């Protein structure tokens, strides 16, 4: 049955930045499709974990601050030790920071790149160890439409560069490890209704421009990203690797 291809029963998924927004939407989708999901975030949210478990999902939680250079490898190792395997890695944790390039501080730049790019590389590097032993695995990185365009009206050259790097990292991993049964894809969201975008969406200058640039008359939801993530993490997409799937309400069409 076609719908069976979307089931991931018995698979173990590790999701970073998992307790809110897009990450939580992905956790719900993977969990409802049968995965054992190991959630991670910098700040624990026990009430979120309790709610997910009460709904019948198989959930574990590991706290980690991925800005710490050692954290991604330790997180992958701890998740693998906890569950016995690792089938799916979702690198969702990230930060968005705006600012004019000429005044963007070195400290802000280094922090943004460390979280958005370096930690993703480190987590992928660590996840490849168990996945190569299994001869199977799926890596899903969360990029952004900002990896394709410069965006207006907010200045964010550093953020845009970080997401473009995530896209190319994904494509390179897909090429390098396909022969070992490992797929790597990314999702590039447009404007999704989350805590991270709420300020911009409500801004009297930015919000109307973002909406006018989006053909579909709506803002996306975490569920919109979660359902796409399920496709890319399941056997429904077994012939898809190296893809950056844009989910933006048509934003890039304009």
Detail the topology: elements first, then pairings:
Layout: E1 12-15, H1 21-32, E2 36-41, H2 46-54, E3 58-63, H3 71-83, E4 88-91, H4 106-134, E5 137-142, H5 157-177, E6 182-189, H6 195-202, H7 206-212, H8 222-233, E7 244-247
Parallel strand pairs: 1-2, 1-4, 2-3, 4-5, 5-6, 6-7
Structure write-up:
By secondary structure, the protein is of the alpha/beta class. It has one domain: 3-Layer(aba) Sandwich (Rossmann fold). The protein has 8 helices and 7 strands, in the order βαβαβαβαβαβαααβ. It has helices at residues 21-32, 46-54, 71-83, 106-134, 157-177, 195-202, 206-212, 222-233; strands spanning 12-15, 36-41, 58-63, 88-91, 137-142, 182-189, 244-247. Strands 3-2-1-4-5-6-7 form a 7-stranded parallel β-sheet, with helices on both faces. α1 (21-32) packs across α8, α3 (71-83) runs parallel beside α4 and α4 packs parallel to α5 (157-177). The longest helix is centred in the middle third of the chain and has 29 residues, at 106-134. 44% of the residues are buried.
């Amino acid at each position: 049955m076609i719908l069976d291809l979307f089931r991931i029963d018995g698979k173990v998924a590790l999701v970073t930045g998992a307790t809110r927004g897009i990450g939580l939407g992905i956790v719900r989708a993977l969990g409802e499709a049968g995965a054992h999901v190991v959630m991670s975030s910098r700040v624990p949210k026990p009430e979120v974990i309790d709610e997910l478990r009460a709904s019948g999902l198989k959930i574990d939680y590991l706290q980690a601050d991925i800005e710490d250079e050692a954290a991604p490898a330790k997180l992958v190792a701890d998740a693998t030790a906890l569950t016995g395997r690792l089938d799916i890695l979702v690198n969702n944790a990230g930060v968005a920071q705006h600012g004019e390039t000429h005044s963007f501080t070195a400290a802000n730049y280094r922090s943004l790149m460390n979280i958005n790019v370096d930690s993703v590389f480190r987590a992928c590097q660590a996840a490849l160890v168990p996945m190569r032993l299994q001869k199977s695995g799926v890596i899903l990185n969360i990029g952004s439409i900002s990896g394709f365009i410069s965006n207006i009206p907010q200045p964010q050259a550093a953020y845009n560069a970080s997401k473009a790097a995530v896209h190319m990292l994904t494509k390179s991993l897909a090429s390098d490890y396909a022969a070992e049964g490992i797929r790597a894809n990314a999702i590039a969201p447009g404007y999704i209704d989350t805590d991270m975008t709420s300020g911009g969406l409500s801004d009297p200058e930015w919000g109307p421009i973002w909406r006018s640039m989006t053909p579909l008359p709506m803002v996306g939801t975490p569920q919109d990203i979660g359902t796409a993530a399920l496709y890319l993490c399941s056997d429904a997409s077994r012939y898809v690797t190296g893809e950056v799937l844009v989910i933006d309400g048509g934003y890039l069409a304009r």
